[in-house]
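FORM 12-B: Structure-to-Sequence Request
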């Protein structure tokens, strides 16, 4: 699993701002080019490579279970969308369930991240803070921003 996959796993991937209302046509860089990356993905990308690898390994089972649950949820959603009469309450329950699953995963990732940062020495934490600043300077696409 790569960095993007782990960020996606957590629902922490930056939004593709090219497709957001009010932005320029896809591919053109507007004000969003100056925005920082997503918070969770920046915290993850700034971790040392071995820490990122360990987190991915520890969260793999959770991701696998989540994928199975999402498959079931999509099947239920498909049935609900085809139902006559349409039951908006049932669809809302599925949406709420998905939102809670994402919140639970994000919380697990945050707790895992915090435990790793807490275990760092003062020196390692300062190095991490410097790496985090670099990640933020590079922005959501991972390239250094032009001033």
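FORM 12-B RESPONSE
SEQUENCE OUT:
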């Amino acid at each position: 699993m790569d960095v993007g996959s782990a960020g996606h796993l957590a629902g922490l991937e930056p939004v593709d701002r090219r497709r957001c209302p009010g932005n320029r046509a896809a591919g053109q860089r507007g004000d969003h080019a100056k925005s920082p990356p997503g918070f969770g993905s920046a915290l993850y990308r700034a971790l040392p490579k071995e820490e990122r690898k360990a987190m991915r390994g520890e969260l793999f089972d959770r991701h696998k279970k989540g994928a199975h649950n999402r498959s079931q949820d999509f099947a239920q959603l498909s049935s609900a969308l085809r139902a006559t009469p349409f039951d908006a309450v049932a669809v809302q329950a599925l949406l709420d369930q998905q939102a809670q699953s994402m919140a639970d995963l994000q919380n697990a990732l945050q707790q895992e991240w915090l435990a790793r940062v807490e275990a760092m020495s003062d020196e390692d934490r300062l190095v991490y803070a410097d790496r985090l600043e670099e990640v933020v300077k590079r922005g959501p696409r991972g390239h250094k921003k032009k001033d």
